[in-house]
Amino acid sequence: MEIKILFSETFRIPLICLIGIIIYLILKFANLTLPADVIAILTTILGSYQLFFDTFKKLWEKRFALDYIAILAILVSLYTGHFLVAAILALMIASGRTLESYAVTQAKESLTKLIERIPDEVLRWEKGKTTNKAKLKDIKIGQQIFIRKGEVIPLDGTLISPAGQTDESSLTGEPYFLDKIKGDVLRSGTVNIGSPMVIAVTKTEGNSTYDKIIELVKKAEKEQSPFVRMADRYSVFFTLVTLVIAAFAYFSSNFDLTRVLSVLAIATPCPLIIAAPIALLGGVSSAAQKRVIVKKLASLETLAKVDTVIFDKTGTITLGQPRLTHIEILTRQFNEQKILGIAESLERNSLHPLAKAIVVKARDNNAPVLYATEIQEVIGHGISGTIDKQKFTLAKMKDNIGMTIALTSAGRRLAVFKFEDELKLDSKTSFQKLQRMGLNLKIFTGDRQAAAERVAHQLNLQIELTAQMSPQDKLNGVKNLQNSGKTVAMIGDGINDAPALALANVGLVFSNEEQTAASEAADVVFLGGDFSLVLTSLQIARKTIKIATQSILFGIGLSILGMIFAGFGYIPPIFGAGLQEIIDVAVIINALRASI
After folding, report:
1. pLDDT in tens, 34-90
2. Residue 79 in 3-state DSSP?
3. pLDDT tens digit string along 446-474?
4. Which fold has domain 323-420?
5. Dist CA 371 CA 162 (whole Å)
6. Among candidate residues 76, 102, 104, the one with its CA nearest the CA of residue 89
7. CB under 8 Å to 125, separation ≥6 — which residues?
8. Within 13 Å of residue 296, how many CA atoms lie on the same side as its CB?
9. Which helix (H) or strand (E) holds 200?
10. Which residues of 444-458 are buried (b: 16+ CB within 10 A; e: fewer)?
């Protein structure tokens, strides 16, 4: 059972310890030595007993703890009668724990904001009117809920109301308002910016789109990174150095424990166990704020070490919103307007880039608004639905050349839609910055050689590209680079990239649908299609690891320097305790820079 100090997440315990020290000084000044010593001992117990309990627990679990030095310092100070030093050490420990708790809370701020967007309760809709409020966890699939204007949609569902309008920027990163009609898919985390609406729930709490994003961040923040474990190894080294310097001080001073106490006071508490976790959590938080979801802390470290980056082309370097340039009608049953209306009714429910191009084209051409039911989308394969009792399917053609999809019904091809891809506005500048970072950049694409070369020409960069690659070819390409000693990042956006994404040292994916195979295979997920997110993720990773390393080495360096001076008798115990607290605060403040 874990012991928790009352108000442990506030500064009340450190404040009480500070008051205890002030009372001690007043009593000492009044020559009331015994009451003063009792106050100091009680203050020491109050500020450090949780430390003793936690260390005992780690010993029971046969785990190493750097807190051994802190405990030894307190015991030596009490044994030698330096009660004020013991009380100050206890104050330092209590304030350090409180400061660490605050820093971790700040580092996790983005997760808190993500969770707070979704309400705990929602209005039920029954028999044409709102009824009682219900806990989100109690809502079942098929039940209807009422969403007022300005409210975040808490669960995935389909629109029951005749029409609506949503802001999906929280998922896609694109500042567009989307019109919805009855039967359209609504995703949790998006905002109702139109009239109040009623939706039928299709996914319960824990399974919805937005919950998947939150879960990714939670998993990352709970994971212990190899870098954190490396900090533990630094801790072992630091402990041994501390004991060696303390032993030198003891023997060189004719067995003066006060000299030993000065050394131990400077080593207590140590910033090592605080700096790395706070910096890494801060990096995950900073990334999440910029719509970069890091699924594992280890991925942040690996990303910082990457020397080779492979890009898929379509949907990664190029725009996520291709233009529909040509429609080839292959039937006399429907004219172009009706074909557009059918395609638009299906694609309104998809986040695929080609889908948006069809929706835009249909609305620009005033195509008829049709209602599709029984919508089914298989990512990477296509989308189907029923319109006026006839089932239609939009999917890539087996003989697909470039960006071309076909509308079929009952096995008969009705129309072919052809699209043109365009370079993302920020691709060129981001590529230039990536090259300046010293990275080896490559393009792996399944598209034709001519299309790939056109993109390379638009980038105006000397970049190695390989075209007409199958998923297996991309996988082999990643494997060959790794075998040559490269640390490889693979960046893609589709199911065909999943094998390469999974094999790469770190996989990054542009995805607007969090349950695609690509998202599952990747280590980092970009919410939205901005190419600059690639640059952002690499910059955050390098910055985070740099700050974590700086904090550790800075803390070790200053502490060892202080211990050496203390070992020669230049720093008394009280000043040693104060010096270490200054080091701790400086290290935590530096680690928090990763959150910015």
Report:
1. 999 999 899 999 888 887 887 777 777 766 555 677 888 889 999 988 898 888 888
2. helix
3. 777 777 787 888 888 778 888 888 777 88
4. Calcium-transporting ATPase, cytoplasmic domain N (3.40.1110)
5. 11
6. 76
7. 131, 144, 145, 146, 160, 198
8. 17
9. strand 197-201
10. bbbbeeebbeebbee
Q: Helices 83-107 and 573-592, interaxial angle, to 10°?
A: 0
Pairing of strands 197-201, 157-159: antiparallel
416 strand-pairing partners? 328, 406
Report whether 134 contacts 155 (CB < 8 A). no
DSSP at 465: E
State the residue for tokens 């986040």. 351
The pair of structure tokens assigned to 50 is: 């949780």
Supply the pTM of this predicted model. 0.61
Which residue has 């212990």 as its token pair?
224
Residue 476 CA to residue 503 CA, distance in Å, equals: 9
State the virtual CA torsion across 553, 555, 561, 563 in degrees, nearest 10: -130
d(C-alpha 549, C-alpha 587), whole Å = 11
Tell me the CATH architecture of domain 292-319+424-529: 3-Layer(aba) Sandwich (3.40)
The CATH number of 121-213 is which of 3.40.50.2020, 3.40.50.720, 1.10.10.10, 2.70.150.10? 2.70.150.10
308/539 Cα distance (integer angstroms) = 15
Beta-carbon contacts of residue 554 (< 8 Å; ≥ 6 apart):
586, 587, 590
Tokens standing for 387?
A: 């319109």
